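Project standup — Tuesday

K.O.: blocked on the structure for the chain from last sprint. Re-posting the sequence here as requested.
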Amino acid sequence: MKQYIIKGGTPLRGEVVIGGAKNAALGIIVAAIMADEPVKIENLPDVDDVRVLLDAIEGIGAIVERIDTHTVRINGALINDVNVDEDAIRKIRGSYYLVGALLGKYKKAMVALPGGCQIGSRPIDQHIKGFEQLGAEVTIHHGKIDARAEALVGHHIYLDCPSVGATINIMMAACMAEGKTIIENPAKEPHIVDVANFLNSMGANIKGAGTDAIRIRGVESLHGSEYSIIPDQIEAGTYMLAVAATRGDVYIKNVIPKHLEAITAKLIEIGAQVEEFDDCVHVKADHRLGYANVKTMPYPGFPTDMQPQMTTLLALSQGTSIVTETIFETRFKYVGELRRMGANITVEGNAAFITGVEGLTGAQVSAPDLRAGAALVMAGLAGEGYTYVDQIQYIERGYENFAEKIRGMGGHMEKIDSEDERAIRKFKMKVS
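H.V.: unblocked you, prediction finished:
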């Protein structure tokens, strides 16, 4: 089984280049099959979730041409099946976007219920509500979402909560419905705007993405396009906090600084230096940072996907901090692993109470999910001694070339086979 081995205690320095946004890529890949002409997508992140989704759309008849590591051409003209029953597809959350895309284009879809990280309940009731209000009949049986409609007709839809997945799914279905749809109380995350922009590049008529109401006028068909995905806000944020945790100095390139404002604000609040450029942020921390209270909120608030990394940074900071999780109810599963490394964290309900410690120490830990896994890598880089991170398949769902990028900033980290004693000895000799 593969694991990361990390030798901590070295500040990260230099620069790192951020890849395309995973969460945008999943929506955009699926949206691409709605056209009957070739669609070229650039700046695609080379991560497991993307590979699984590309295989899934290929499995139902889409033509997928992998031009290079970060570029793909997709043509949905020859799709011959709306029944997506891949074992792999159950492992990623983004599989549910296939319902909106297939329902919009073919007025029917049958897709295996999604999986992804076990970080709490992520019901699809808002998705179903939206599809039904557009005129579809939706049932769940044999582990699948079955959605069908004689025709989709635009409707005024109010989301009970600003769900990212429901916003994208309803937006895709509505863009090929008859008439006008208004989605009120939508999610506003950058990747929702990116998916809307991509759909518009194919001929959709979507206005207001990123605001309090999205207005969609249905079109009969979508055409080919070329599109480049936005940079990954969460990958960038992870490196920003890792630099601060290791007291490093790094230029983080290919970012949109506005998307990082909530993260930047917290770093500055606790004493780190953050300098913004057009497509780059410079993070520097040469001392132990201070405490803060953090509450996860829908965008533009502090992102839930950055909560484990922020908790890890505050575990190394001075004073007592409180992190409150308002999005997913079981997102503190990793705290026990941080305690193994010496962190002083108590979880009560949806809040973590953190008393900062001088330093962490290496240990054998296991990643319970994608972002928590990245946080444990952070802890290992900041800690003393060697850290072994298991279950890295979660991490590789969302971080491209993680170990290579860390090494590019001077960190000591390798991906190895956990039973390869020779590789472990070689790594230790190299970094000693």
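K.O.: great, moving the ticket to review. The chain is about 30% helix and 25% strand. The radius of gyration is 22 Å.
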